[in-house]
Design brief:
Strand order of the largest sheet: 11-12-13-14-15-16-17
Number of strands: 17
CATH architecture of the largest domain: Alpha-Beta Barrel
Distance between the termini: 50 Å
Structural class: alpha/beta
Number of domains: 4
Strand content: 5-15%
Largest sheet: 7 strands, parallel
Radius of gyration: 26 Å
CATH class of the largest domain: Alpha Beta
Amino acid sequence: MPRANDAVEAMLIEYADLLSILFEDPYKPRAYEKAARAVGGYSVDLEGKDLPEILKVPAVGRSIGEKIQEFLTTGELAELEELRERIPPGVRGLMSIPGLGPKKAMVLHQELGVGSVDELVAAIEQDRVAALPRFGAKTQENIARGIRQMQAAGGRVKIDVALGVAETFLELLGSLPEATRAAYAGSLRRMKETIGDVDLLVAGSDAPPVMEAFVTHPSVARVLAKGDTKTSVVTDLGLQLDLRVIPDEAWGAAMIYFTGSKPHNIRIREMAVRRGLKLSEYGLFDAKSGDLLAAESEESVYERLGMQFVEPTLREDRGEVEAALAGELPVVVTERQLKGDLHTHTNLTDGLASLEEMVARAAELGYAYFAITDHAPNLYMQRMTEEKILAQRSRIEKLRRTYPKMTLLHGTELNIDPDGEVDWDGPFLADFDLTVASVHSHFTQSRDEMTARVIRAIENPYVDIIGHLTTRQIGKRPPVDLDLEAVFEAAGRTGTAIEINSHPDRLDLSDEHVLWARRHGVRFAVNTDAHAVPHLDHRRFGVGMAQRGWLTKDDVINAWPLRKLQRFLAAGRP
DNA sequence: GCCGTTTTCGGCCCGACTGTTTTCAGTCG
C-alpha cells in the first residue's frame, strides 16, 4: 500500500507546478516542492496525524500544513481544484518534456492554445512554435527531440510506480474470501526497469466476485475487457492491469506462463515438446495420454522438465535455460545477503534526514556496516567544506558506541570534473574509509572525452566505487556517451567497483551493462544513494538489476563480510 | 511559503548552459 506521504507529495508537486505556470514568484512553488520532498522522505506516515504532528515535517509551515491536513481528511484540496480549473491538465503535462518548463508551457498555452503533447506536436509540424517570442528554430527542434525521447519510453512506468499499484490491488484481491492466493507476475516480477502493464494472478474457483471487486476499485478509470478468466483495466495513472483468475491447483504453471518472458516460455515449451510433454498455463502434461504431471508449484514444473528452478529475474532467454538443464545456474545475490549500503546522504548536504536517522534505519535493516557518503565541495550547491566533513567524522565516531554491532564507515561522494579530477587530494582522501566518485555535470562531452574522464577517475587510487556510471534518468535523461568496453576493462584491471544505483529513476548500471561488466571481472556495489530514510528500501530494485545481471554474492562487495570489504577498499591505495 | 546565534523581514543551494538575445530568460542539476 503506498503511504499517505506519497499521495501528499504528489499533491504538493502538482500544486507547485501549477503555481509555477500561473505566477511569476519563483519562491512559492519552490517552497511547495521542498515541502513535497520533505514529506515524501519523512519516515513517519502522516495518515491520521493532526496538525502539530504535520508541522514537525521540515519545510512544512502553517499554510502548507493546513493544506496537507485538508487533503488527508477530505482526500482533496479546494485551492488545488481552483488552480486546476485555470490550467488544463495537459499544460502541466507539457512540463514533463525535457527542456520545457513552466514558462514556455504557459506561452504555448496562451499564444497557440496548446493544451496537450499531441497539440504541441501538431503545432511543431506547422512550424508555429519557432515563431513565438523568445522561441526559435533551435528551441522548436529541442522540444521535438524532447517529445520523441519521452515517447520512446512508450507509456511504460517505472518499476516503483508499477509495484505500488500492484501492491494496492493485491491487498484488495488477496483479502477476498474467493481468493486462495494472489500475486503479481509479468515483467514486474522479473524486475524489469520499466513496466508496460501489470499482470495479476488470483487463485480461486469462483471468478465473478473477484472480477467485480477488481473493476470497482476506486483507482480504475476504464474497463477494457471483462470475462470469467481475464479482465483488463486502465488505472487513473494510465497503467494497464490484467487480472487472471486460475484454479488453485494450476498456480505454478500459471505463474510460469504469466511471468514470462515470452522467449523464456517458448524455450521451455519447445523443450517440453521434445520430451513428449505439453506445457501450458494449466500445467505440464504427457502429450499422448494427457495426464497431468506437474502444475501446483513452479518448482515442480521445472523439476519435471529436468531443470533447476529458474529465478524470475533470470527468465529472459539469456542462457538460463541451458544453464538450468546443466545444473549450472548462478545462485543470484538476494536482498538478505546485502550486509551494508555504501552510498548514502544526510542533511549535511542534499539529504533530507539527519545522520542519526539514517543510521538508525540502517541498524533496523540489520546491516553489518553502513557508509555515509555526503557530497564533496565541488558540487558547489552543497556547500561542503573540509571543516564540515571532519565534524561529521567526529559525530560518526561518537555514534559508533551506540551501534556496537554495526560498523559505521565514513566516506564521501566525489565529483568527477570534466577532466576526470576529483575534489580533494590524496592525503585528505586517504583518511576516508571509502569514496564513491560520480559524474554530475557536463553530460554532453564527446565519447572520447567522457571515456578518458571516467577512466581517469577509475585509475585514481583513492576512488573505490564509481557511482551511477551512465547518469541516465529513466525516461528523462539519456545515458552519457561512453566506451563501456574500455571503462569496464579499466575497472576490472584496477579493482574499482562499479555501483548498481538502486534508485528506480536511475537503475544505473542497467542489467545489460551488468552482464557486460561482469565479463571483465568487475566487482559491483549495490547502493541506494539514499537521500532520505525511505530511500534505503530501494535496494530491492538494485538487487533486481544485480540478479538480472546474473550476479552472485561473490560479485557484490557489499554482500561481503566487513574484513573482506576492507581488504578490497585498501587494495591499490599508495 | 518557509525560516532564523548574521534576520520576524528579506532572503531563498549557486552556477552552467542554451538559445535568444544586444543584456538576459528559462531550464537544469
